[in-house]
Amino acid sequence: MSKLELKGISKSYGSSLIVNNLDLEIQDGEFLTILGPSGCGKTTTLRMIAGFETPDNGQVLLNKQDISQLPPYKRNVNTVFQNYALFPHLNVAENIAFGLHQKKLSKTETNKRVDEMLELVQMTAFKTRKPFEMSGGQQQRVAIARAIAPDPEILLLDEPLGALDLKLRKQMQFELKQLHKDLNKTFVYVTHDQEEALTMSDRIAVMNHGVIEQLSDSQTLYNHPKTKFVAGFIGEANLIPVNIANKETFTLEDKTFNFNHEISDSKGILFIRPENVSFDTIHDISLQVTIEDVIFVGNHRKYKLVTASGQKIIKTEDSSVALTKIIGQSVTIYLVPSLIQIYN
Amino acid sequence: MKKIRAFIISFSAFSVLWFLYFPIFIIIWFSFNKESVSSFPIEHYSLDWYIKLFHNQSMINAVEVSFIIAISSTLAALIIGIPSAYALHKYNYFGKNFLLKLILLPITLPGIVTGVAMLSLFPLMGIPLSLKAVFIGHTTFLIAIMITQILARFKKLDPYLEMAAFDLGASPLQAFFKVILPNIKTAIIGAVLLSLVLSMDEIPVTFFLISRENTLPIEIYGMMRRGITPEVNAVATLVFLISSAAIFISLKFNKEN
């Protein structure tokens, strides 16, 4: 069942169109991430769900009800802000109770719920602390507890881990994922960090220039990016210019290969992940290259390859595989056809 | 080289402090002089002038008037100043910067100009020279003080706090009283104390608008015309102590957060 539906929403500031006729359906209980570079319109989209912005066109439907014109305080959705935005004059328990007071819960109910929330985010010991007496990670836990306490229909998270250091961010990713599982609540998460998105989400909506370029689960997104932008934004990718004569072949380095695609232009961009470039698994699509450099990157090694025409290609392989190639050596590489895409 | 520079810096700092505070120190000292002539050496110390001061009815009236004016104009400036500062902070509209400069002008404008201007205008508006006129005069420049102090705090306030309040179900009015106000409280207290002191000390605007009743500074000024009596020293000492205490507290509150 769809929990939240964005129907053709647009938003512009002055003459710049930030969100362009965007459609998005979010399922009940789903962890959906809106991923994109800064300025792609992801935060504006989240703000239109929260009610901080009103769309110029289109509808925001929550449980099939149009809420697009409601102010934020009349929407049953709560936000976790990137900078936490905890109320500095209130302590941890009072911060969490804020939304409950607004809902006019009785004192005993409020106290019970606050204690529940404190336990959920493991902050019971910090109950009477003021925000400035806590670290960033602790403040973030309180911010999450405060947003969940009023039991919103949807929890919105606006780059909530952006201000934390790498190690803490990894741990919080894991905890948020666990929290999502335990609460069985719909999460809409906004981030520019593709790794974070891949790790946590049920589905990812990749946004660019105000539109969703692709909406799919992590694996599909990684292995079969629909557009050149998605291919380049998620993970590492080789994007190689090719010539096209018909829809059954393409030409690379003066060699023509059989490959079915949808491109009608005379030029295209071939996409292949560095780990899908192979030295020894033989496929039809092969190229002669020279090894320019080999770089050791911890768990994998990276080959910088160059074709006769000067096209650079990256290949990676597990560092546990024995290194048999040397710099300057000429080798044949094979591209796995099922993991190739061709874009305009 | 470094030593010479340090010497020059500390020498000039001490000279400035000396010029500022030595006369005040002398006044405080003389206020305890038993003799009515201010001259060294002081032979007998006493609190006579303070006792005399507390029996001076016109002085007591002046203090009363000053308090009434200071409190009422501060209150009026507060009521006008907080919403104005909020609007100036939150909304963008045509001519906002110009408006802000216009509001700040009374701070930089010589009091004498404001005083003369009001002196010519108020009778035309049917406001006679009176404490009412003084109240309006003080309120106008206190609004400027109030708005600058509170606006400065608004600018430091995290805009996400208000958003978080809305997000958790607070209406704009509830958000203002439950979240914004508690977080600008210290700035308000500071601005109030500063306003009280400024109103208490104000001469030029008051001078033009006052009728029969005197405020404290005008009363002191009147006493001075009959020659410096140690009673003036005693008043000055008290005014100095109260003002510095208020300024000190106001600075402390403004530093918080």
UniProtKB/TrEMBL annotation, chain A:
PANTHER family: SPERMIDINE/PUTRESCINE IMPORT ATP-BINDING PROTEIN POTA (PTHR42781), SPERMIDINE_PUTRESCINE IMPORT ATP-BINDING PROTEIN POTA (PTHR42781:SF4). Pfam families: ABC_tran, TOBE_2. Its EC number is 7.6.2.11. Keywords: ATP-binding, Cell membrane, Membrane, Nucleotide-binding, Translocase, Transport. It comes from Flavobacterium taihuense. NCBIfam families: potA (TIGR01187). This is Spermidine/putrescine import ATP-binding protein PotA. Part of the ABC transporter complex PotABCD involved in spermidine/putrescine import. Responsible for energy coupling to the transport system. The keyword Ribosomal protein does not apply. Belongs to the ABC transporter superfamily. Spermidine/putrescine importer (TC 3.A.1.11.1) family. InterPro entries: AAA+_ATPase (IPR003593), ABC_SmlMolc_Importer (IPR050093), ABC_transporter-like_ATP-bd (IPR003439), ABC_transporter-like_CS (IPR017871), PotA-like (IPR005893), Transp-assoc_OB_typ2 (IPR013611). Residues 4-234 form the ABC transporter domain. The complex is composed of two ATP-binding proteins (PotA), two transmembrane proteins (PotB and PotC) and a solute-binding protein (PotD). GO terms for molecular function: ATP binding. It catalyses: ATP + H2O + polyamine-[polyamine-binding protein]Side 1 = ADP + phosphate + polyamineSide 2 + [polyamine-binding protein]Side 1.
Automatic annotation (TrEMBL), chain B:
Signal peptide: none annotated. PROSITE patterns: ABC_TM1 (PS50928). The chain crosses the membrane at residues 7-32, 65-86, 98-121, 133-152, 232-251. It is found in: Cell membrane. InterPro entries: Bact_Polyamine_Transport, MetI-like. Residues 63-250 form the ABC transmembrane type-1 domain. Pfam families: BPD_transp_1. Keywords: Cell membrane, Membrane, Transmembrane, Transmembrane helix, Transport. Belongs to the binding-protein-dependent transport system permease family. CysTW subfamily. This is ABC transporter permease. It comes from Flavobacterium taihuense.
